[in-house]
Write a structure and sequence with these properties.
Helix content: 40-55%
Largest sheet: 8 strands, parallel
Radius of gyration: 23 Å
Strand content: 5-15%
CATH superfamily of the largest domain: Aldolase class I
Structural class: alpha/beta
Distance between the termini: 38 Å
Number of domains: 2
Order of helices and strands: HHEHHEHEHEHHEHEHEHEEEHHHH
Length: about 375
């Protein structure tokens, strides 16, 4: 057996292989060990992922002008035509405090009736946020009427103070509410997303425990959730802690495909966090066109509104999620299959800038994809 044969054999050696190994020079042995170490620590990530887009709900909710219903429908249609299977449509919460969602019912009716995508909707998951009882009740009523959501989103925070600010209930009260209403929603065919927030820190309390988020994840599944979103809602997560958390999570659950990563990029770490999550083994992500989004606006069309209170951010105009365009392009360049028409998504991103009336945060919308001649990829 030659020295180079050792570079393609498994890490463990048989007795005969080890005896042959001893005859090699120290330099050859060092080369062997170096190659094995490089292979061991080479970047590992899934070869196929799911990217959901939540522009129309999470992205537009932070805008301080009402986005026309027709524009929202157009974005949903175009993203479906681009291959996106998971989309957040609206929030069934009280529109008095969040007027961006005053068209929630009409928006669902229009997208359900769209001739452009009607034949594709059976393979698409349309989600509505339903934080409290009345919102869940509205979703159930809409479902019974034939236009409602396929899936609703409920949310807990690992921080008690953030939970109260976001929902008006303590954690104990919220879990009790969720346990009561999840069966009612599932009875009419609505799937449930349970979201866990403040995993990597709370803008009110500060540091939080990663272990609590793992416990909450398991509890969501115990009470009937179909999948769980793991959310960095204010951009507190750093790449090292993202890798640590998702490694812990995937070691603790038996359904990795039902775990969803949600990153904000308040401090510019968004795609670094996506990469860390990929390396930990995550395969399900969500994002917004142009990287927009954040807390529901507390000022809409020149009028102060409740929203969710004061903004957590020093500059509310410089926040948002990971950009759908940039994440899809990055993953494509890495050879990760997204099943998306990325060129189409980039075009939609350009139009979304016109819809909101300003340059957004996507770099690839502005700079384009890397020319194929430079990458050697077909």
């Amino acid at each position: 057996m030659s020295f180079y044969d050792f570079l393609i054999i498994p890490d463990s050696l048989t007795a005969n292989q080890f005896e042959n190994f001893l005859y090699f020079s120290h330099r050859q042995i060092r080369t062997y060990l170096f190659v094995k170490i490089i292979r061991k620590f080479n970047m590992q990530y899934p070869k196929k992922v799911v990217i959901g887009d939540i522009t129309v709900r999470d992205g537009f909710q932070h805008e301080e002008k009402f986005i026309p219903t027709e524009a929202k429908v157009w974005v949903l249609e175009q993203m479906i035509l681009s291959g996106v299977k998971h989309l957040e449509v609206t929030n069934f919460g009280n529109p008095k405090g969040m007027p961006q969602f005053k068209d929630a019912d009409e928006l669902f009716k229009q997208i359900r009736a769209s001739k452009k995508v009607k034949d594709l909707l059976d393979d698409v998951m349309l989600t509505a946020v339903t934080i409290r009882e009345r919102a869940i009740e509205r979703a159930i009523e809409a479902k019974k009427e034939g236009y409602g959501p396929d899936r609703i989103l409920l949310m807990v925070s690992t921080s008690e103070s953030h939970q109260i600010k976001n929902s008006g209930l303590t954690l104990k009260e919220y879990w009790k509410m969720a346990e009561e209403w999840i069966p009612k929603a599932k009875e009419v065919g609505i799937k449930i997303n349970g979201t866990v927030s403040t995993i990597w820190g709370c803008p009110i309390e500060g540091p939080t425990r990663l272990e609590d988020a793992i416990t909450f994840t398991k509890r969501w599944f115990d009470i009937g959730a179909n999948d769980v979103e793991h959310a960095d809602h204010d951009g507190s997560a750093s790449p090292d802690r993202v890798y640590r958390y998702f490694s812990m999570l995937l070691d603790s659950v038996d359904n990795p495909h039902k775990q969803i990563a949600h990153f904000h990029t308040t401090r510019g770490w968004g795609l670094a966090n996506v990469l860390s999550a990929l390396q930990a083994g995550m395969t399900n992500f969500e994002s917004t066109l142009g990287g927009i989004g954040g807390q529901p606006a507390n000022f809409v069309d020149g009028v102060p509104v409740a929203g969710t209170g004061d903004y957590y951010y020093n500059d509310p105009n410089d926040v948002g999620l990971v950009s759908t365009e940039d994440m899809a392009v990055m993953m494509d360049e890495m050879g990760i299959e997204t099943n998306l028409d990325i060129d189409c998504i980039l075009q939609v991103g350009k139009i979304v800038e016109k819809i909101v009336g300003r340059r957004l945060r996507s770099k690839t919308v502005n700079q384009g994809r890397i020319p194929k001649s430079m990458t050697g990829r077909k």
